[in-house]
Amino acid sequence: MENSEKLTNSKEVIAYIAERFPKCFTIEGEAKPLKIGIFQDLAERLNEDEKVSKTQLRTALRQYTSSWRYLHGVKAGVNRVDLDGNECGVLEQEHVEHAQKALEESKAKVRARRKEQAVAKAAASKDGEAKTNKNHAKSAKPKNTKPKTSKLDKKPADTSRALTADEVKVGNDVLVNMGSGNMPASIVEFNKDDVRVRLTNGLTMVVKMEHLRS
Cβ(32)–Cβ(7) under 8 Å? Predict the structure, then answer.
């Protein structure tokens, strides 16, 4: 069939359902709180749609409703909406408080990771300066012996390890091997070979399983 190519990740699924149900979903700006049980409605409406499976819908909805822009939209006095944009009742206070708590915890986690990265960067810079000063001090000493063949500096031992299959779970914190070092991230989605992760700066990317470390 034409235009029946299977969607491959949550970003594509969210964009697709936003296109199909624009009065309910959005891919930018503040999101509207969704009707309780919206997954069942989606599954029924897209039951014959070959582009997306129920598993993909469930994963995409989880990512959509845990995003900062969605949590920002969960406010007191705001109505939930169904797939057609119809209001389905005002948000309950406990749901508003839960969203606010989740948003603050998520932001605190990002702040903590950025702080760790800054400390690690400062430490690495300090170590580099110390090594440079040490090399300069050595070169200033008179040499009374024949020059020795210089040895290449060895890279610091990588103390991380490859993930086990049990550790590849949505929400788990991991390290992504970027070639020049490991970047902290969290798993948001995975399939047979590829894993989608969210870096501490909020960006998401797809990497191979072998590039994940613990």
Answer: no
Phi, psi values for residue 111, rounded to 5° = -60, -40
Q: Average pLDDT for residues 113-136, to the nearest whole number? A: 82
- CA nearest to 25, candidates 91, 83, 103: 83
pLDDT reported for residue 68: 94
CATH 2.30.30.140 in the chain: give the residue spans. 165-213
Distance CA 141, CA 145 (A): 12
Residue 168 Rama label (left phi>0; alpha psi -120 to 50; beta):
beta
* Amino acid in position 182: N
| Helix, strand, coil share (%) of the chain residues, nearest 5 | 45, 15, 40
Tell me the CATH number for domain 10-101. 1.10.1710.10
CATH code, 165-213: 2.30.30.140
Please say whether the beta carbons of 213 and 177 come within 8 A.
Answer: yes
Please write the tens of the pLDDT for every residue from 2-39: 456 888 899 999 999 999 999 999 998 889 999 999 99
